[in-house]
Design a protein that fits this description.
Blueprint lengths: L1 H7 L1 H14 L12 E5 L2 E5 L2 H15 L1 H5 L4 H7 L7 E2 L2 H4 L4 H4 L5 E3 L5 E3 L4 H14 L8 E5 L2
Antiparallel strand pairs: 1-2, 1-6, 3-5, 4-5
Helix pairs in contact: 1-2, 3-8, 5-8
């Protein structure tokens, strides 16, 4: 129906689109930035983009628990940085996108942390939360006491 209206009348299509969005919110699945509230060791910040909040949280973990990121071997770094399909944190950009080198070319898909490691940011909020939870386990931190991550959408 939406395409039918759009082909015939742009103003009507916009009205239908507004009404559909009002009645059936997409819950952040429409490509827009998703705001979050991040808290680490009592410092709480609101971020318009979950990516910015995620990077801030990674930096907080880096500054308070740098040993996890500097270990070359050991269960903690592997536990945090690896998944069966995706490597989330690495000292090489190419390791973040082994099957999709085109993603490596776009700097919006990763960030270089202050400790020199690269972190994949091309993820949905659930994946970001999974990485943060793994970091918390490796750092022996408790959610809601030491850190938290709350989506606002």
């Amino acid at each position: 129906m939406h395409r039918f209206v759009k082909e015939r009348d742009i103003d009507a299509a916009k009205a239908v689109d507004r009404e559909l969005r009002a009645r059936f919110p997409l819950g952040g699945r429409d490509g827009r930035a998703k705001p979050v509230i991040a808290m680490f060791k009592g410092v709480e910040r609101i971020f318009e983009k979950s990516k910015d909040g995620y990077v801030w949280m990674l930096e907080m973990f880096c500054s308070h628990h740098s040993e996890i990121f500097t270990e070359k071997e050991g269960w903690r770094r592997g536990f945090v940085s690896d998944s069966r399909e995706i490597k989330f944190i690495s000292d090489q950009i190419s390791e973040l996108f082994p099957n999709s080198p085109e993603l490596m070319k776009r700097k919006c898909n990763y960030v270089r942390l202050s400790n020199g490691l690269y972190a994949r940011t091309h993820m949905d909020n659930d994946q970001k939360l999974k990485v943060l939870c793994k970091l918390a386990v490796a750092c022996n931190m408790t959610i809601l006491e030491d850190w938290s991550w709350q989506k606002l959408v």
